[in-house]
From TrEMBL:
Domain Peptidase M20 dimerisation: 175-268
SUPFAM superfamilies per record: Bacterial exopeptidase dimerisation domain, Zn-dependent exopeptidases
Keywords linked to the UniProt accession: Hydrolase
Pfam family, one: Peptidase_M20
Taxonomy of the source species: Bacteria, Bacillati, Bacillota, Bacilli, Lactobacillales
Species for this entry: Secundilactobacillus odoratitofui DSM 19909 = JCM 15043
Superkingdom, taxonomy of origin: Bacteria
InterPro entries assigned: Amidohydrolase (IPR017439), Bact_exopeptidase_dim_dom (IPR036264), Peptidase_M20 (IPR002933), Peptidase_M20_dimer (IPR011650)
Keyword Hydrolase: yes
Gene3D superfamilies, alphabetized: 3.30.70.360, Zn peptidases
Record protein name field: Amidohydrolase
GO molecular function terms listed in the Swiss-Prot or TrEMBL record: hydrolase activity
Amino acid sequence: MTTQTPMIDEEQILADFNYLHTRGETAFNEVNTTNYLAKRLDEMGVAYERFDDFTGLIATIGDGRKPIIGMRSDIDALKQVYQGKTQVLHSCGHDSHMAMVLAVAAYYAKRPEAIPGTLKLIFQPAEETVTGADRVIKSGKLGQLDYLYGLHVCAQDEVAGKHAEAMIPDIATRTYWVTITGKTAHAGRPELGANVIDGFSALNEKFKQIKLDTNLPYSVTTTMVQAGESSNIVPDKGTFAVDLRARTNDMMDELQAQAFQAMKDVSVNGIEVILDGNDLSPAAIPSEPAISTMSKAITEVLGADGLVEPAPTQGGDDFHFYAYDGVAKESTMLGLGCDLTPGLHVPGMTFDRSAMFDGAQIMINVVRMTGKN
Ligand SMILES: [Zn+2]
């Protein structure tokens, strides 16, 4: 009987991790990181293409046969103060994601016939700024994907060690940057002006009254406000920011419609509300075929008890742009438990390094099992 356990080089995973771990680079500055990935792919004889004007690369194993199976690793780190020094740290674990996806590359470089189609490995920059996926999509170098898999290490309080979830239910988040204008006047003659603070407080009340017909969590929160410079003048200009969160993308659309209506409603009597910009991170879009394949891939490595229900999270990930923008038909992210403490984005974050061996095996499995439901 042949063993179902794929062969992975644990020493190499640790070597890749240790190299990348000590050399974190921030969003779109992952120059050395990209060069290292390119060097490793060269050693494996895997073809890849860099992007013309930003960091990261896409490696391809296979001749273009369908299904096209994508796998994405983020590659950026965070600038943080740790032990009294400003450093760039892999406190979100993207170093481990790269090490695991490199192990997938090494495995299939030797066994391309084991891929049910063509494998595209996306080493994506700038996940932390929620701008990398968009650039990859707009580069035109990726093309359409039938499946897309991602992965993220999970905090211990969300997924325990030796356990994994077959999707990460990230929520949708959107931030508005808004200017509000009115008409200035002397503070003693307010009726001659249009006070942006009055306009803003009316608007903030309307934001608080936004109601969706759902039991799922959502929020609309004003997070920044600035207006007025003198205590005796009616201010005619202000700025503020609003943070919107919703469990699904449809709920986010509804929140957005109500927020826009509120802004329109207060744009009267000389007050004007202007949306300067907004940043969106879409919610995870559950895909039955991708999740069921990922579930099987997990079960084969961690056993039936190792597969856990997706843990609610308030996090976001620009991975979901690939499905949201229609580039990936079916997609999901592995949430890998690895005894990670004290939490993601916390300097000094640490986890059980051997969990990367399980993670790499799961990601190897999910490719092999794709389309074989
Ligand atoms: Zn991350």
